[in-house]
Amino acid sequence: MIGAVLPFYHHSSLGERGKDYWQVMGGAVARYTRNDRLWWLFGVGFDDSDFGTTWIPYVGASLILNERWSVSALLPWPQIIYAPSQDWFVSLGASYSGNSWALDSTTGAVGLNLSGFDFGFGGGMRLKGPLWLEATAGVGGLRGLTITDGEINGPRIDVSSSPFVNINLTFRPSFAD
């Protein structure tokens, strides 16, 4: 699977770089299926522009414990899923929230700001065919983790003061049906 994200053309008003420029974002993943119960995923995402190129790796595995339980250790979205039927599931896990790229306007140094992770409990139910309604609620934490030119500034851990609720309408096509 290969992906790219639009838009490709931007304008910056930052200092000497106050001009139009091209930007490409995308990525690629590869999935290795070990057997019916275990698969591995390896991938990378990138952002390339006049301000530099940043790469983000993805790695992990998913293990189907039995017909109803699975554990996904895919970073950055680990979760445990219980599916009592083919039409609904519940999950417990974590995901990125509020990520951004930070740019020093004087030096042009690019920094990755992982401004938070959400830890939550959720569920989903099939509405019709591949259309699902999903909801998650939980708390946010690990605020303020930044990575700039290989230098890491540690996170502040405060998971008690930032609740969240997320509702999604998701299209999940299946080639097995």
Provide an overview of this structure.
By secondary structure, this protein is mostly beta strands. The protein folds into 2 domains: 1-65; 76-177, no CATH class. It is 0% helix and 65% strand. It is built from no helices and 15 strands. Strands 1, 2, 3, 4, 5, 6, 7, 8, 11, 12 and 15 form an 11-stranded antiparallel beta sheet that branches. Strands 9-10-13-14 form a 4-stranded antiparallel beta sheet, with no helix packed on it. It is globular. Residues 1-7 have low confidence and may be disordered.
SSE layout and pairings?
Blueprint: E1 2-5, E2 9-11, E3 20-33, E4 38-49, E5 52-64, E6 69-72, E7 79-85, E8 88-96, E9 99-103, E10 110-114, E11 117-128, E12 131-141, E13 145-148, E14 151-153, E15 163-171
Helix segment tally: 0
Report the helical percentage: under 10%
Major sheet: size, sense and barrel closure? 11 strands, antiparallel
The domain tally reads 2
The total beta strand count reads 15
What is the ordering of alpha helices and beta strands?
EEEEEEEEEEEEEEE
Strand content: over 45%
Q: Give the overall average pLDDT.
A: 76
